[in-house]
Amino acid sequence: MSMINNALPLRRLIIPSLHKLKNAAYTYNWTADEDKLLPEHFKKRAWEFMTKDPEPVHYIPEQGRWKMDPRFKYRIPVQNVPIRVLFPRESNNGLWGGEGVIKGFVKKEKDSVRVPHLWLPRLRRAILYSEILDRYMSIMVTGRCLDLIDEVYGLDNYILKTHERDLNSRLAMKLRREMLLALARKSLYPNDPVKRVKIYNRYKEYIIPEEEAEWIGLTVPEALKKAEEMQAKNNPIQPLKEVFTEEIVQKLQEQSLEDKGTSSSSWLKKLSPFKEPEEDKKN
């Protein structure tokens, strides 16, 4: 925990530049004042998302530290430079499996001038089913994403098992939040207790506390709004009228204890700015 706290100032400086460098589909960024409101588990996940290298999709990394140059026949170091991938806003509304838009140059003919070219992912609309949510969904996906879903035997395993950096989609994180909340609250299959127990036991390894699952998939503005609401609920603002009233009542109670020998109305007469009526003086 202390390691995370020490990294917070560095995090606020690094995250914007990391977003430009790694070019994720979305980013996490907040100010120093907002940092005090957000819980540590939310900030830790944001830090991991912005610092983790995604799985290679558009290139095959070479293994080892050295390789033999095929032309000059001497040893050279292995340098795996990831291909820069662009993720448009539409990628947050689907499951692209790490694929994105690649910008480069091509030659139409041999020895011709290079011209700009864009390589786009092949998208298709697929109907996917979630066992935890018991819901069919029409989602724009890529062929690679369908292969990854098949490898882990279902959409639920893919959403819950894959790291957020590799999901790289707001839709995926919203689905993960719904799934984790359904598991934490045991609200899945309300009309079928037998299937509820079966599905719950199948995915129980992914269960996290409900207090933490509620923050999964939230954007920074949504998380700040939630944090402010929780703070207002736990520390409600008391009107000054009530504060001053309590102070006056406390002072009056202390004064009454000091004036035990006098009448019960003596402390009221001392505080009254008006003169006593003549009838009271005669009596």
UniProtKB/TrEMBL annotation:
Annotated stretches, region: Disordered: 254-283
The entry's keywords: Ribonucleoprotein, Ribosomal protein
Annotated Basic and acidic residues bias: 273-283
SUPFAM superfamilies, per database record: L28p-like
An example Gene Ontology CC term for this record: mitochondrial large ribosomal subunit
InterPro entries: Ribosomal_bL28, Ribosomal_bL28/bL31-like_sf
Top-level taxon: Eukaryota
Gene Ontology terms, MF aspect: structural constituent of ribosome
UniProt family annotation: Belongs to the bacterial ribosomal protein bL28 family.
Official protein name in the record: Large ribosomal subunit protein bL28m
